[in-house]
Amino acid sequence: MSWLLPAFALVVGVMGAVAVWLGLAITLRSTCPWVAPLAALDMVLMLRLAAAPPGKARATLALAGTTIAIAISYWMIVATQMGLLLGLSPAESAQRLGPVLAGELLRHGTTGWDIGFSLLALGLAWRFGR
To answer: Are 69 and 21 spatial neighbours (Cβ–Cβ below 8 Å)?
Structure first.
């Protein structure tokens, strides 16, 4: 029962980070890799506000939430870009997008900055999550 509120806060944090990241990506027409560290700090803050006990368990949850937020955000960015070309909504495109096509689009659309900011985000989630 003591982890119910932190788990709910983590889900809300992931959904919020994905929504903000996708909104910025659509507006700025970029993958916005600089949002990844902000998403990590959001996960840490949500877990602390939900009174998750400090330690490796909270750090692991922050790391997992950050990883999930990064993965879903990039999936939705790719799906939105592909959906615009095909006249589909982002939700329809995300449901139809396969992992191979998503991987190829990400491979061609990402740079070293994307990877660097994602790795920085994972480090921040672990460090500040404890």
So the answer is: yes
Nearest to 128 by CA among 18, 17, 46: 46
Residue 85's identity, in one-letter code, is L
Please give the single-letter amino acid code of residue 52.
Answer: A
The structure's pTM equals: 0.92
E strands, 1-130, where? none
Structure tokens at 39: 């998403």
Task: Provide the token pair at 43.
Answer: 């996960």
Calculated CA dihedral for residues 88, 91, 94, 95, nearest 10 degrees: -100
* pLDDT tens for the chain, residues 1 to 130: 588 899 999 999 999 999 999 999 999 999 999 999 999 999 999 999 998 989 999 999 999 999 999 999 999 999 998 898 899 998 899 999 888 888 888 888 888 899 999 999 999 999 999 8
Query: Alpha-carbon distance 27 to 1, whole Å?
Result: 40
